[in-house]
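Hi F.,

I've been meaning to write this up properly since the lab meeting, where we talked about keeping a consistent format for the predictions we share between groups. The idea is simple: the sequence comes first, exactly as it goes in, then the structure tokens exactly as they come out, then a line or two of notes. No screenshots and no reformatting. I'm using this chain as the first example so we have something concrete to point to.
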Amino acid sequence: MNFLKTNIYDDMNKNELSYKELLEKNNYILIDVRTPKEYQESTITGAINIPVLLDDERVMVGTAYKKESQEKAKQLGVEAISKRLGDITRQITELSKEYNNIIFFCARGGMRSGSMASFFKSMGYKTARLSGGYKSYRTFILEDFENIVQGIKLITLHGKTGTGKTKILNELHKKGIETIDLEGLAKNRGSHFGHIGIPQDRSQKAFESLLYDAIKHRKNNIIVIEGESRKIGPVHIPNTFWNTMKKGLKILVEAPMEMRLDIIMDDYTGISELKESLLEVAEKLKRYMDGNAYNKFIDLVEKGEIREAAFQMMIEYYDPMYNKSLKKHSYQGEITISSIEDGVIKLENFLKEYK
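Output, unedited:
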């Protein structure tokens, strides 16, 4: 398999399109030919991963390029991909039956995507590579954020831990109301305990891509979201969207303690290694809590009395913290709810009046 050594590179610039041009096309599929690790960190929304090089192969090729020669690196790359070329071809063949255009991209629109686009084009497939690769896509969406938020009106739900804001959002979404679940996009509930039970946080790049896509493909300009701090776990909300949040309408959601505890238990019960995770996070919060309250929380967790431990954490840490935070805002609406269903109905009524 010497196709990587032919003159197909001479044709690479004739077989590419920008991300802006791509948005004008229909019935295409994006193929991310980067390594699984690169793809896992972040990709273009909707793209599938068919790697030219696997993670360890990319390291091997890169080492050869730095320590030996470019020719040696190319040789190792050809040998690595040759082993999987048959399987790659089968995947592309199947995709070509469903999509009119197959668009390849890599990190910067170079050798990996160019070789794939040119090779499959030579075999009669309708292919192209994304000019500038993933990097050009990132540049485009970061610059376009300013444009896509124009005209949107955000209605932000604020409230203490356990008031069911995320659950209300999900139910509103099922009813066809425009919502964006920022915590869902971030894969984090937005608190010190927010990562527990969630396999992996999003990367900043992946979060921004998903947020961009959600705004870009909205059906109307009124969007309900949940109030968040600037950071949600390890990611931060982009400046443009954050400024739009600050200008939007704010609604305070109040709920009785027992309901809040029910919601928290629903979120956390059944999580493997819950006890260990709670103790680990509590250790980080120790300096913010009264010593007696902290010791009581630890004792309750050790005994498996999670509901009582949650109550302890709420009254000693979260509620006092949120009381200070909530006072910083002025609210255009306030609802007291007795259940998630009650919250959905009251939010629907508010939206009807707002429109």
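Notes:
The chain has two domains: 3-141, 149-354.
The first strand starts at residue 16 and ends at 17.

If this format works for you, I'll send the rest the same way.

G.
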